[in-house]
Amino acid sequence: MKDNLKIMRRKLWLLGFFKIPLLHYCKPKLISLTDEEMIVKIALRRRTKNHLNSMYFGALAVGADITSGLFAFYYSTKNKQKMSFAFKSANMQFLKRAESDVIFKCRQGLLIKECIDQSASEKKRINKNIDVEAFNKENELVASFQMTLSVKVL
């Protein structure tokens, strides 16, 4: 598992540097990765905070995006499958101002794997709602996200 984490950290950096500059700008850090759960941290700093000294909602959206989307990337790499994936919709609930670094957790890795497997077997695009939660340093829930992940195995 430690090798997977190291490889995915490198791929996250490469993805941000070469393909999605906003990721590179926000500098998300991959903290933990298992087949079921992914944990990503975005630090509260000048680049990610708003005029109220809390995390800007765009940075929070980047965290939710990468926490759930990186799972699809992880499984495509692990299974050596080419796939197209994107987010079809996002529902965000901001519960409290994020006035510290934010930890994003997605515990639906197996659901994402199931989505990918279903797309591969049915040869069509599959959509699944994926939940992501964001916590501050005090482990208080500051935001929750429901992202509709759309996957098609090529």
Task: Report the CATH architecture.
Answer: Roll
As residue ranges, the low-confidence spans are none
> How many distinct helices?
4
Quickly name the level 1 CATH class: Alpha Beta
The coarse overall form would be: globular
Mean pLDDT: 93
Major sheet characteristics: 6 strands, antiparallel
Return the domain count: 1
Distance between the termini: 27 Å
SSE series:
HHEEHEEHEE
- State the helical fraction: 25-40%
User: What is the radius of gyration?
Assistant: 15 Å
| Strand percentage | 25-35%
Largest sheet, order of strands side by side? 1-2-4-5-6-3
> Pairing-aware structural class of the strands and helices?
alpha+beta
CATH topology: Thiol Ester Dehydrase, Chain A
Q: CATH homologous superfamily?
A: Hotdog Thioesterase
State the total count of DSSP E strands: 6
Task: Characterise this structure.
The structure is a single chain. By secondary structure, the chain is of the alpha+beta class. The protein has one domain: Thiol Ester Dehydrase, Chain A (Roll), CATH 3.10.129.10. Helices cover 39% and strands 32% of the residues. The protein has four helices and six strands; from the N terminus they run H-H-E-E-H-E-E-H-E-E. The protein has helices at residues 2-19, 21-26, 57-78, 109-122; strands at 29-33, 38-42, 83-94, 102-106, 126-135, 141-153. A six-stranded antiparallel β-sheet has the order 1-2-4-5-6-3. A hairpin with a 4-residue loop joins strand 1 (29-33) and strand 2 (38-42). Helix 3 (57-78) crosses helix 4. The longest helix has 22 residues, at 57-78. The chain is globular. The mean pLDDT is 93.
